[in-house]
Specification:
alpha/beta, Rossmann fold, 10-stranded mixed sheet, 28 helices, 32 strands, 40% helix, globular, binds pyridoxal-5'-phosphate
Amino acid sequence: MKPIRTFTVRAVVPESLQALEELAANLRWSWHLPVKRLFERIDPALWREVGEDPIALLGDVQPSRLAELAADGSFVADAEAQRDELRRYLGEPRWYQQRDEPGPASIGYFSPEFGIAQALPQYSGGLGILAGDHLKAASDLGLPLIGVGLFYKAGYFAQAISRDGWQLESYPVLDPDGLPLTVLREGETPVEIGLDLPDGRVLKARVWQAAVGRVTLLLLDTDVPENDDDLRAVTDRLYGGGGEHRLLQELLLGVGGIRALAALARVAGTPTPEVYHMNEGHAGFLGLERIRRRLEQGIDWGTALELVRAGTVFTTHTPVPAGIDRFERDLVARYLPTVLPGIPAAQALALGTEPGDTDGTGAFNMAIMGLRLAGHANGVAKLHGQVSRRMFGDLWPGFDPDEVPITSVTNGVHGPSWIDPAMVDLAERSFGSTDTEHVPWGEHNVNGGELWSVKRAMRANLVDDARRRLAASWAEQRPGSIVPDWVLNALDPDVLTVGFARRVPTYKRLTLMLEDPERFERILTDPDRPVQFVIAGKSHPADDAGKHLIQQLVKFTEKPELRGKIVFLPDYDIGMAKVLYPGCDVWLNNPLRPLEACGTSGMKAAMNGALNLSILDGWWAEFSDGENGWAIPSADAAGDGDERDRIEAAALYDLLEHRVAPAFYDRGADGLPGEWLGMVRHTLATLSADLGADRMVAEYTERLYAPAAAQADAVAAADGGAAGELAAWKAKVRAAWPAVHVVHVESAGVAAVPYLGDTLHVGAIVDLGELSPDDVRVEVVSGRTKGGAELTDVSRQELVAAPGDEGQYRYSAEVALERAGRIGYTVRVLPRHALLTSSAELGLVAVAG
Ligand SMILES: *Cc1c(COP(=O)(O)O)cnc(C)c1O
């Protein structure tokens, strides 16, 4: 019989073990190994069974065992020492407190998903894991950051595979009382967030708080009795429903999230954020709610927009237009007036209008709105920055892609969460430090034999874990049948192991390895140098194409001659990932370049001494150096997609056969693969620090949060007067711009044959219409050119105005000829204002000719 309801009865923990409760209540345990080991000591088998979840462990452990530990002086002392360490960690000054530069007193970080621990499954993939890692690194660095998201009753979904290889989804319901969450209360009363809906009802939400080290994470949850059933279901699952359901989730995240932050400030006295970070467009409505609050204070739309933009950071995560959230405009129009009362509909809708949509009837685009509401924007790897500048370039017409104000901060991964305990112990033995990201992993510092045996132990651990998962899946598919030996003995702990796990959208090309099945089969079954593959990944429930790919792969793994040499593990999640990355020798990634924004699984694998074998996309395009793995060449010039797949798969097979397998299997007199270990050491030594999430969060702080806070301060000066002035100035410039043009450009002063070091005199007559020279910057842009084509390698120099009249001004400059070769130049006019973050900000430019 199945229960209609479940709830969690918390165990009574003996007085002398109260420290355990305190440790379980803060998710810091999930990245602090001594505390994990403390919980593991309570009952190692149960710890694994409950999926490393302290609260579940304390609930399920035998009371007699707790009594035994309560009487064990050394255990009690260890628990108390860890509790004291946690308190110290929470209170002491850290990196952020020791910076010289001023920074924001609080940052609100909004994300539709957060992957923090296996025990709190509120994520679907890379976006959520990244958000979790961001919070943890922010905590470690001491950033005053508050996370805001939704609490999904069933998380994403649990994946099983049918006997026919088809993905089956189930939605096990989470019990928040059994999770490390507490209800945000004002006094005794739970805080209630409300959104007025067009049908007269109110969507209500309670707010869960999770302690992620020093960071508070707020999760809004509509599953409260005060809501009708359909409204209770708004936060039922992550990326579940379509249009209206998704819109309600995003309104709740953005608008409700701001209201939850205000409630937190009221009840906990924490400062309200000065900077707001949107992790993708899903949280974009937060900007509208912040504008609405300004309008309520009697501030006009333009001024409010400036006040909000200045302190907002937007991060784009997808170079795939299909990956962007778009809503039917009418649907958005229906919700805005009640959810965001007082917001002028036309202006709000215009924010989400795509640049090409001249009559404003197309979809409402959340990323476009995010970019318009954020004064600071970035992609998540250098290449992705470039791609994003092109993809969104239409928002800044007239500017070259490299001038589009979208920078990049390459993602990082939180080492303490992802580095295997065996690596940590190795670092401690070899260097006397558990900081695996910063110890000197170079040639002579770590014994090759020891490194190799740690890699083998991690591989063996993966093999065990995979066998358990395969056996469980077999038993589930065939109730009552006996799990055969080949499943129980799948994989080999001494064989070169390649891992491939990720979500399964088509661009990630799960089945590229099956392009030439015979050749792939030969690689897997090579008698001297066999290669085994461990594969995992979930397809979005609505994506049948992805499910077909999984099915195709699963069928391939079932060929009798390949059994146990290539396996598909169902239900990829954090728990599996933590065993999979360290257990692999090679991490494979073969997306269609440049559609992988960053890709973080390869980073996690590298930190555990795996070598990457990947298309030069995302982070790998930036970090591949020839000695830390292998680059699969992209066949960008191929005639069509099929041909491209064929060429790139052939390159993959070549690398596996001729480079990867020989390096792994060629053993020296000491029995060790010298070349391989050299590459592993090099990977650990050169990548670990750069791939860390602390590097990423420090970069966000220096390059985005601190400037955003400064900008927010600047526009708020004179009680918002500066923002008002900026808004009025922008309106004036926009109105006057059509008349602005370069009338004439003259150059003189260059000898008939110009030489390097000569100067070029550039003069221009510019008509500024209603504007004055103070409003603009006139510049000469020079660079290399081939036969009058686009300028490359450009440099810019400002021209100086002489007094003029009737709106016409004479500008001039002396340009030093610092480069030989074919040089071209042009003159252009840009808006100029001290409070602009970029001269491209308004998307206005007047170019000569
Ligand atoms: C890291 C991680 C991802 C994201 O990996 P990508 O390489 O970015 O696709 C997805 N799921 C889990 C469980 C992860 O740990």
